[in-house]
Structures are given as C-alpha cells and as structure tokens.
Specification:
It is a single chain. By secondary structure, the chain is an alpha/beta fold. The protein has 2 domains: 137 residues, 3-Layer(aba) Sandwich (Rossmann fold), CATH 3.40.50.720; 181 residues, Dihydrodipicolinate Reductase, domain 2 (2-Layer Sandwich), CATH 3.30.360. Helix content is 33%, strand content 22%. It has 10 helices and 14 strands. The strands form 3 sheets. Strands 2-1-5-6-8-7 form a 6-stranded parallel beta sheet, sandwiched between helices. A hairpin with a 2-residue loop joins β3 and β4. The longest helix is centred in the middle third of the chain and has 17 residues. The protein starts with a strand and ends with a helix. InterPro entries: Asp_semialdehyde_DH (IPR012080), Asp_semialdehyde_DH_beta (IPR005986), NAD(P)-bd_dom_sf (IPR036291), Semialdehyde_DH_NAD-bd (IPR000534), Semialdhyde_DH_dimer_dom (IPR012280).
Length: 329
Amino acid sequence: MKVAVVGATGLVGTVMLKVLEERNFPLTELIPVASEKSVGKEITFKGKKFPIVSMDTAIGMKPDIALFSAGGNTSLEHAPRFKEAGTTVIDNSSAWRMDPAVKLIVPEVNAHELSIDNKIIANPNCSTIQMVVVLKPLHDKYKIKRVVVSTYQSVTGTGVKAVEQLMNERKGIDGPKAYPYEIDLNVLPHIDVFMENGYTKEEMKMVKETNKIMSDDSIKVTATTVRIPVMGGHSESVNIEFENDFDIAEVRSILEKSPGIIVVDDVANLKYPMPKDAHEKDEVFVGRIRRDESALKALNLWIVADNLRKGAATNAVQIAEYLIQKELV
C-alpha cells in the first residue's frame, strides 16, 4: 500500500502525516510530495526520514492512494494525472466537490456511495463535515426541512499566514496580513470571497455541499460564516427545523449512539463543547441541545470539531481506511 501525501509540508499535510501515524494506517511506502522548493528536504514519519519528492516523481511511483492538500489549482492540474497512473486521489481542496462525477464523502454519512470506479474523491469543507455528521442521524429519524447555521471558525482554517497574523497582533508586531482587518480582539463575518447574492463562497459551500452529501436537495440551508481569533477548532450554532416532532431525550440518545460524535451537554455543571477541548481530537462534539421555543419541531445545537483533523486530515484518512476495508483500491 503506497500512499502519497501531496502538500506534505502544509498545515493540513502535516496533520495528515500525524493522523496516518496515530491510526497506524497500513501503508508500506510513504511518498511525501511538496512544491519544487521543498524537494530533497526530509520529513519524519514513525521515526524514519523520508525525502520530499516532486509531483512527477510521485506519479511515476504509482501510489495506490494520494491524499491531496495543496490547493484547488494543484488538484485540478495533477489529480487527473495521478488517476491516469491508477492512483485513487482523495482531495481536500474545493476543486472537485461540486463536480457531479465526483463523490463528496463524509464516512459516517455516505461512504457507502463509493465504488472501485471512484478515482477522484472529494473531501468536503471543514465546516460542512462537522455539521453533516450530526445532521445525518437526526435526518434519518425526523427528516430535516431547514437548517440555519452560524459558524465561529478558527484562524487555522485560513492557514499559517493567518496564525502568524494573530500571534503577531498579540505581541504588537506588524507583519504580513491574511485578513483585511485585525483578527485579534475582533470578529470577521467574512470567510472566502463575497458572491453576487451577498453570501460568501464559504457560506454557499455549506449550502450546496450539505445537499450533495445528504443526497437530499429538499433540505434548505442558510449560513453565516465568521472568523474568530481562536485556535483548535471550528464551532457552529445550528438551528434545525424537522418535518416530524422529536423528544429531546431521544435526540440526545440518537447522537450518543452515532459514530464519530461525543455529546458534551451538562449545563448544570457548565459542560459544553469548546474549541480548546476539540483540539487534536477526531470526533465531533455536540452540546447545548435544546428545543427552539420560537418554532414548531425545531432544535438548537452547538457543534465543535478540530477543523484540521475531522474537518480535513482525519476525514481524508478515514475515507482511505474505508477504501482499503472494502477493497476498493
């Protein structure tokens, strides 16, 4: 089992390597890939040194699986080349997500859709992943009509430059900016570019990706995505309107029994999910579970997950694990 990690030196790429190691992924050969300026440098995996190779070298090595986290343009150019070499690509960028010929996968939700013919598989947006993990079991039971979500997203979702901006601002250092405004002691209701309808691209990703992953265009979704000065994970306030009524105790029981979810919901003892608790964890944390008293058959939830792990690297590795388990590679 030869596995290439494309973008191995980036924020998500380094977490992918960490997750592969932690989960004892059954690879026999690791092929780290990065930009030309990094070729020849080494990364450490399971105590061994591995040289970083170029895209062309990696394709020539014909890996079984390539985990991509190197940006949309890189994926559009090189994922088809890996596919032609017989490699199954799991891509973390937005390049292929809405392509009708490409599966958009969250293993707890729709891994069953995968077949041996799927040679390019898309990893969804981080904020969508953590939300649909929670929506799916509730939709199966009560049928979701509408979702209103507001996100509180970590600077790590933007990348290294954003983390540096936050840390520099905290130290009073003037440095490169990832955002148009200060992020420390501030909140930016602006993630990705604004579109003609007044929504940002990130907000519309959550709308369209949710429908595709859930295989149900009848679910209406509206989103407001917000960048906040935290590390460790994304948080979401989610309001769900159902077709059928529900019992709060049953909702909690369904979530507690669902794969990939940890319920942290004990307000009497001030227990609820926070980004610092989700940091470096693979699960999705849910709390503040309560009926929406302003609407019929409506529920409020608070959802938190590590955006670099379940929101990106871990989800991709879980897809790879499923492919191996089902002998689809």
